[in-house]
Amino acid sequence: MTTRTQPRRPAAPGPATGPPDALVLPPDTIAPGRANGRAPLRREGPAKLTGEAKYADDIVVPGAWYGATIRSTEPRARLRGLDLDDDFDWSRVVLVTAADIPGDNIVSLISDDQPVLVPVGGEIRHHAEPLALVAAPDRATLRAAKRAIAPRTEKLEPVFDPEASDHVFAQYAIDAGDPDAAFAEADLVVEGTYRVGHQEQLYIENQAMIAVPTDDGGVTVTGSLQCPYYVHKAMTRALRLTDRQARVVQAETGGGFGGKEEYPSIVALHAALLARRCGRPVRMVYDRHEDIVATTKRHPAIVRHRTGVRRDGTLVAQDIDVVMDGGAYCTLTPVVLSRGALHAGGPYRCPNVRIRARAARTNTPPNGAFRGFGAPQVEFAAETHLNRIAAELGLSPLDIRRRNVFRVGDVTPTGQVLRESVAGEEVLERAVEAAEFERERERTARGRAGHNGAGLVTGGPRAAGPAGAAAGIGLALGWHGAGGEPDPLATGPIRRATGIGLALGWHGAGFTGSGEVRLASVASLELAADGAIRVLTASTEMGQGTKTVFPQLVAAELGVPYEAVEIAAQDTAFVPDSGPTVASRTTMVVGGLLIKAARRLRAGVEARNPGRTFAEAYRADAAANGATRIDEQFEPYPGEPFDDTTYRGDAYPAFGWAACVARVAVDLDTGEVSVTDVVAADDVGRVVHPVLAEGQVEGGTLQAVGYATIEEMKVADGRYVNDRLATYLIPTALDAPRITSILVEAPFSGSPHGAKGLGELPMDVGAPAVVAAIHDATGAWITDLPATPERILVALGATAGPATAPPAEPAA
Amino acid sequence: MTAFRFLVNGEPVEVDVPGMRRLLDVLREDLGLTGTKEGCGEGECGACTVILDGQVVDACLVPICQVDGGFVRTVEGLAHGPGEARRLDELQAAFLETGGAQCGICTPGMLMAARAYLDAGGGPDEGAIREAIAGNLCRCTGYTKIVEAIELAAGGGR
Amino acid sequence: MPVEPPIELPRTLAEAYALLAAEPLTPIAGGTDLMVQITGELGPPPDRMLDLSRLDELRGVALDGGTLVLGARTTFAEIRRSALIREHLPALVEAAATIGAAQIQNRATIGGNAVNASPAGDSLPILLAADAALVAGGAGGERDIAATEFWTAYRTTALAPGELLLRIRIPVVTGREVRFRKVGTRRAQAISKVVMALAWHDGGPAARWTNVRLALGSVADRPIRATATEAVLENAAPVAETADRAAATLAAEIHPIDDVRSTADYRRVVAARVLHRLIRDAGGW
From the candidates A496, A667, A670, which should be mutated to test the interface with C, based on the most C CB atoms within 10 A? Predict the structure, then answer.
């Protein structure tokens, strides 16, 4: 069930901007591009519904060979050689090793530390690391060839603990005020440690690329990807190709979520190397097992909080330590860590802050981008910690947030003044109202009081601890046996406990700091001589509706029907580099460029045709004057610059705000958690397409619910143990809660349409809301994700094993 | 190799392939019907769901020798009419209207599971719908708008 | 990409027996377990196979005197729809509903579940608790194998080379109660962490239980009967003291392991608690 909002005027008056925003419309207005107040049906929808949309593996390429990757079976070793079985006829296949790489043996990204293939004599740094490539005309031969190659290695001692690692990819320090002095003055100091594990993006379409060698000595790759120009750059570097020789075409992509931000470069390079070697097209399509085993995951993290508060819940000091596990190579780790550090305190006003963040190397597969990109990890910790503080103080989780949430004019720990577009309070109030949070919380408290005689904890602050602890928490699952003693094997009269939990979050829109300036993205609009209006960007569609939203924005700006605006395919031969399709920047940044381009196009046509609108004049104008192309390049948003060394300044042009209320039912016999309902309120600045926007909130929320509950990735000896869909679990339709999405608009005046980021925001708050609800139901704080039934039973003392939730100690 | 004969979306087909070839591969590679997708190859994700003799199955788990004489329905058979005049059926139209497809990779399998549910008389009952699609994983939508679409197609209001 | 082992397509049971007598063949019914195994990634794929889909002798659900007879090829969807099974063994219908999802239930068979012999097979504890007999057939004739004798080791059955599982016979006894509970990893498409079937003869309100059977999956290398716990429940009334003792006995009797899905500790404690709850619910306290 979803609740739609109508576009609202911003609560606080913002600074004066340029011409009136075409999309700031009263609800009943009929406007082009938003016929009758309803956004258009998805342009790219029908093909996906009929099975006609072609994903990479659907594309038939006559004469293509099949490619495969030979991978390390050890987490760390020296590669001494690749032994080829003499019984296999190697003339039937093509083999590629590091020695065959024409350019740099580097997967170009941030640090040049990751090889395309480990060279003989080089160091293998993770399980499943690519060592060699093989292509064959059919799959049976390919399978046989794979079995006939044996890497020869010398074991090296692996490092799996990021806290024990001696190699740091990045570290950051954020300081504000004087935390030490503030701690001394605080009424209460609370400490807590929170751990989050890997999370697999689990796009339902596996990684896939088809590489075709071209007559000019180049290679065209077509495949499943988010960032055509990342792949392009990787190809020119490693294959020593010119910009024209390397060509990247996005096929219909079955989900990305960040998992196809940088990893496709590797698949593309591998396919391209094989294609050039055998002089024919090569298909490289992963199966699910290989995809899970070899590709990037969300960075695990350990986040330690030490927080000073007043009795009334006001935050006076935060000291936060973040350690992330980057895996074996740098990939995007510095940027993930950066976002993590900047969001670590949560969306709260606190004048005295110390944040230290570092990301270290381990001998596990490299981690990478996944929706939220460092924020879900730290915001799980921040929100859970704040909820525990509230419980310690006897305050409601709502009141402590009302007291501390940022308001307009507040200053973040980097010294950024939140001048406008601040909606933390609004999303909080909308979510708790829709969820009837306070009423539900009273109800669950009464339910607990009713269980009193049967041993479930009642009232008061609830702390975790082993069975039999004074607070009685251990009795929550260890019902009194007939003999009166707590008995962990016995059940109680109540089988199911319900709980409700709350979390609040923020997410900086666009790239951090000077990232957008460095990207210098370009988006283009073309008015062809035949009157076709075409959008040209590298921004990819992977489910979020890019190919609907961009024509919508442009059509509204030009005053033409939505159907009149086409969108070109994401092919580096034709579209400019609009930056990667990541960081929730597509509607905000690239959409913003398109609006500006459309304004310029419109202005030009209307200037040449006075007295007539663009809609009336453009076809004749194009016929008379020939094609026009407008290239719009990114210009910095208003605000203070960000210093990457001191971490002072405006970290983001604006922040999005999100609140989440989750309800759970916990089976007290087994610890199984059912997340029954979630209310998610998200401020995205401006809702361009309500159905698509809700879709992002709903999808992101369920991914966060999975992160909190069943998505566990065990690692043994540096290898992923949950390496198939039978063992790495995401929620089914029966596991999924009812999700109510509330879209809030606090427009950002710096973007032409007021839009901020959307896609990642819902991911930041779902998990802590679920964990808070579990606490409300059972009294147990789960501080390590996922909150599996096993962890819940341990936390409640029903089973042995370290209690995962040491008491939130008052340390002052 | 043996010849196996069966109907696909009402059309008779004959394939001469090993009996243990997966129905999924026969559809996608031998018959060029790429609408049915492979997400996991182990019967967990449901992206390969087709309707075989009136029942939903994972095509990655069905050997073609067991399809002999059978009737297979795939996503390609849902829309009505030939060529240019093709129209989405009411279930597909409902998905389009509610936003039940985002990246679209789970959509063909999801549509077939929903189709089978509706054909068996399933109504706009949220719990029954969720059970009917419990074997179809979606990572994009959170299932909310998929359930809405099926409710809509089942005659439920919005 | 999976391998495609050669497969024989017998049209009659006699033909199947003849093929099996000539060489070792891996029979395939619904394929929901085997088709995953033919990728070869989980172990060596089968060399040669035998298709059972044309053997109507393996189908059908019937009541034969006081015995429910299920053909080995009965799918879990058919079990759910079967009026006979809903009436005489509703716990099996309940178990069938927990297996996979619709796509799996339409293909997976109870015979396949039994012969695949996974320790986590969801229907298997019910067969043990219900004193089922599994009927094997081969060129030499048919024989009954008691469920307690059928699973002999990890993923190993008592079927002799050349034998097929034909049908499963379950006695229908008036007054017999059977309860089922599965603790999975999620609400569908979930392999069990603990799966349990409890059966007893109900003599009426406040009467003691007799002929108690307690069977579990996912706590050993094969589905088992918890005989020490059965002894505690035998001739006991379903009151709190009984439940406490039974739970404690079960926790001491089983020796589950840590694996990708769960921990030994969790399985042990949850098995005990699930039993405790079943007794509590039956006793109504």
Answer: A670
In this prediction, residue A810 has a pLDDT band, given cuts at 50, 70 and 90, of very low
Q: Kindly list the residues from chain B whose CB atom is less than 8 angstroms away from the CB atom of residue A49.
A: 75, 79, 88, 92, 95-96, 101, 104, 107, 111
- Between chain B and chain C, how many beta carbons pairs sit less than 8 Å apart? 90
User: Which phi-psi region, left, alpha or beta, contains residue C272 (left: φ > 0; alpha: ψ -120 to 50)?
Assistant: alpha
- Give pLDDT tens digits for C246-260: 999 999 999 999 999
Residue A597 CB-half CA count within 13 A: 30
A521-633: CATH number: 3.30.365.10
| Domain boundaries A1-30+159-201+297-509+652-812, CATH class | alpha beta
A443 touches chain C (CB under 8 A): no
Residue type at C244?
A: D
Domains of chain C: 59-171 (3.30.465.10), 176-283 (3.30.390.50)
Chains that touch A (3 or more CB pairs under 8 A): B, C
Instruction: Look at residue A2 in the predicted model and tell me its pLDDT.
Output: 38
Predicted model pTM: 0.94
Spell out which chain C residues touch chain B, with contact meaning CB-CB distance below 8 angstroms: 2-7, 9, 28, 30-32, 35-36, 38-39, 49, 51, 53, 77, 100-104, 106-107, 187-189
**Across residues A745-761, what is the average pLDDT?**
94
Question: A19-28 pLDDT, tens per residue?
Answer: 322 233 333 3
Q: Which of A65, A283, A284, A669 to mutate to test the interface with C (most CBs of C within 10 A)?
A: A669
Domains by residue range for chain B, with CATH: 2-76 (3.10.20.30), 83-153 (1.10.150.120)
The three state secondary structure string of chain C is CCCCCCEECCCCHHHHHHHHHHCCCEEECCCCCHHHHCCCCCCCCCCCEEECCCCHHHCCEEEECCEEEEECCCEHHHHHHCHHHHHHCHHHHHHHHCCCCHHHHCCCEHHHHHHHCCCCCCCHHHHHHCCCEEEEEECCEEEEEEHHHHEEECCEECCCCCCEEEEEEEECCCCEEEEEEEECCCCCCCCCCEEEEEEEEECCCCCCEEEEEEEEECCCCCCEECHHHHHHHCCCCCCHHHHHHHHHHHHHHCCCCCCCCCCHHHHHHHHHHHHHHHHHHHHCC
Select the residue of A140, A490, A729 nearest C276 (Cβ to Cβ).
A490
Of A397, A398, A424, the closest CA to residue A409 belongs to A424
Task: Give the tens place of pLDDT for each residue, A247-302.
Answer: 999 999 999 999 999 999 999 999 999 999 999 999 999 999 999 999 999 999 99
Q: Residue C153: how many CB atoms within 10 A of its CB? A: 10
**Mean pLDDT (whole number) for A188-208:** 98
At A465, is the pLDDT very low, low, confident or very high (cuts 50, 70, 90)?
very low
Confidence label for A119 from pLDDT (cuts 50, 70 and 90): very high
Report whether pLDDT(A442) > 70. yes
Q: Whole-angstrom Cα distance, residue A52 to residue C12?
A: 42
Residues A436 and A441: their CA atoms lie apart, in Å, by: 9
CATH fold, domain A62-158+204-295, is: Aldehyde Oxidoreductase; domain 4 (3.30.365)
SS3 A643: strand
A·B CB contacts under 8 A: 173
Under 8 Å between Cβ of A392 and A810: yes
Which residues of chain A neighbour C263 with C-beta distances below 8 Å? 790, 799, 801
Lowest mean pLDDT among A467-476, A694-703, C93-102, C268-277: A467-476
Give the pair of three-digit tokens for residue A581: 């399709």
Task: Report the first-to-last Cα separation within chain A, whole angstroms.
Answer: 46
The confidence score (pLDDT) of residue A40 equals 85
